[in-house]
Design a protein that fits this description.
Chain A is α/β, with parallel strands linked by helices and 465 residues long. Chain A contains 15 helices and 21 strands. In chain A, strands 1, 2, 3, 4, 5, 6 and 19 form a seven-stranded mixed β-sheet that branches. The two termini of chain A are 29 Å apart. By secondary structure, chain B is mainly beta. The chains are: A alpha/beta (465), B mainly beta (93).
Chain lengths: 465, 93
């Protein structure tokens, strides 16, 4: 296999050092490939697993065990891995040429195969007042809560998805007061997805969630099914009004409640981060039940671009244990694809890993059911609600552009600047599509914005040699 | 865990204490500072996603604008200022 040369040529580039990426890099390096591992943040492990002494955040028991295993494998394989932290792959050219911004300056590398492990983003939905300081996403606040930064604060937790009880539990455990938990999904809706809920894994997760729920005190109001209808500033705090919703998340009038808090955490589950895959030209597919885009891949985790693989939450939201297994399978497939000699245990290896992965497929379905927003949600939006935070494009702006003949999402972008800002449509794309369908006669042909370099904003200094 | 080094930096001239390993945004949040930038139309914004994707947390750090404070380690003597997009000539950046 090739040696890493001064030009930066590798057998395999793994993008993202979370559970999937660390697992993939370790597996491939262990089989003899020269691996480049690129991570945008300064730490390995992703959002859930980390080395406690590095991060200052708490780890639950099961997470400690998984982190220990993951980092042990990584350390053992690190001889064959060049690990770059604080480094961003901002684009890809022909033939798996990768453009990096690193702490030491710009760098271009070539790899014979690439495994994309970018993880997840949070699904956010707008509501009147959602852009005020002090309003965070649920997962974002969870990272801060685990470090004890919210001690003494009053926090309202709202939205949908598995992170709601996790955040509420972490807040209580670190001295914050959970004012209420507002969930768009009702328990009856969850239980109707019996297939996922009653698998052994699903049950064990539900009971973990329930015990977290109990741990933050039975006096905490749980408002469900309901959403935040608006937020405003008042008396040095945030005031949130919630409204009860039906199974389509349409507001049921007159069933409103008001809460005051220092901080609001609001988001609606996790979605795969597909932007980098689209830079590579990989096909993506809208999953209607899960209400998110995923990267099309075969059972070996290879995308529609030969030699480009995807693994972990970036492939589909299944959690960190599934990510670790998928990383190994993708690495194995990459090794095979590069013509690495087969070993005698290979078939059993694949079978064993695939069977360990099976419970997580149903689990992914449960996660999606807990999170997917209902069609009626946009009824709470007012004309002056900001949809594109970066460019301050409102519902009224979108309505006007649709009235003037906007034909698709890219046309809407050109007419309003929606999606042209720093987040590059990561947080407004879903809502923009929904409003396009709502305000026009267009068929529900859901699109993503045309992928363009760079995948995240870079400066000219980042590009210049 | 061993006690971390502590140091100070400034946010709009006011001293903020931080520990080694904290980001600028984390140190600010610990002190109750949540206003990071002001949009072109005058709206105040703060940390939203806390993972480097939304860019709402961007501030001017040691004279450099558009720095994501949720991704940037705090350091001794750092000069952090609220970014006013209207006066920054944002469209040219």
């Amino acid at each position: 296999m090739m040696q890493a040369s001064a030009n930066g040529t590798f057998d395999l580039a793994v993008i993202g050092a979370g559970p999937a990426g660390l697992s993939a890099a370790s597996e491939a390096a262990g089989r003899g490939l020269k691996v480049l591992l690129v991570e945008e943040t300064s730490r390995a492990g992703g959002k859930v697993l980390h080395r406690e002494e590095e991060s200052g955040a708490i780890l639950a028991g099961a997470e400690q065990k998984a982190a220990a295993e993951l980092f042990a494998r990584y350390e053992e394989a690190s001889r064959n891995i060049e690990s770059l932290f604080d480094a961003l792959v901002w684009g890809a050219g022909e033939d798996k040429e990768l453009y990096l911004r690193t702490a030491a300056g710009p760098r271009t590398v070539r790899a014979s195969a690439v495994i994309l492990c970018p993880g997840a983003l949070e699904r956010v939905l707008p509501f009147p007042g959602w852009t005020m300081p002090g309003i965070f996403t649920v997962g974002g606040l969870n990272s801060l809560a685990k470090k004890g930064l919210l001690a003494g604060r009053k926090v309202l937790v709202a939205g949908s998805g598995p992170l709601l009880p996790v955040l509420a539990g972490n807040l209580s455990q670190t001295g914050a007061e959970v004012v209420a938990v507002v969930s768009g999904t009702s328990w009856s809706h969850l239980l109707s997805h019996a297939g996922g809920a009653f698998s052994r894994l699903g049950l064990s997760r539900l009971s973990q969630g329930l015990s977290l729920w109990r741990s933050f005190g039975l006096r905490t109001p749980v408002v469900s099914p309901a959403v935040i209808r608006r937020a405003a500033r008042g008396g040095g705090q945030l005031e949130a009004e919630t409204v009860r919703v039906d199974s389509d998340w349409r507001p049921v009038s007159d069933e409103t409640r008001r809460f005051r808090a220092d901080i609001l955490a609001v988001s609606y589950g996790l979605v795969p981060s597909v932007e980098l895959a689209r830079q590579f030209g990989c096909e993506t597919r809208w999953l209607e039940d899960a209400a998110y885009w995923s990267v099309v891949h075969n059972e070996d985790y290879e995308t529609t671009i030969p030699g480009v693989y995807v693994a972990g939450d970036g492939a589909g939201i299944s959690g960190y244990e599934a990510a670790m297994i998928e990383g190994r399978l993708a690495a194995f497939a990459a090794c095979s694809g590069l013509g690495l000699e087969k070993r005698s245990g290979d078939i059993k290896f694949k079978q064993r890993l695939r069977s360990r992965l099976k419970p997580y497929e149903k689990f992914a379905g449960l996660l999606a059911a807990m999170s997917a927003p209902g069609r009626g949600y946009s009824d709470i939006l007012t004309d002056d609600t900001v949809v594109c935070r970066c460019e301050e494009v409102t519902v009224a702006d979108i309505k006007r552009a649709c009235g003037n003949g906007a034909v698709d999402i890219n046309d809407l972008k050109r007419r309003t600047r929606l999606g042209m800002g720093h987040c590059q449509a990561r947080f407004c794309g879903l809502t923009a599509n929904e409003l396009l369908f709502k305000f026009t006669d267009l068929e529900r042909d859901r699109r993503l914005f045309t992928p363009r370099l760079p995948v995240k904003p870079v400066t000219f200094r980042d590009l210049a040699e | 865990m061993a006690p971390k080094d502590k140091f100070t930096f400034t946010v709009n001239g006011a001293l903020v204490e931080a520990e080694r390993g904290q980001t600028i945004a984390e140190a600010m949040l610990a002190k109750g500072l949540i206003h990071c930038r002001t949009t072109r139309s005058g709206e105040e914004r703060g940390v939203f996603c806390a993972m480097g994707a939304c860019f709402e947390c961007r501030m001017i750090v040691d004279g450099q604008p558009n720095v994501r404070t949720c991704m940037t380690p705090a350091g001794p003597g750092l000069i952090v200022e609220t970014q006013d997009d209207a006066s920054l000539g944002e469209r040219d950046v």
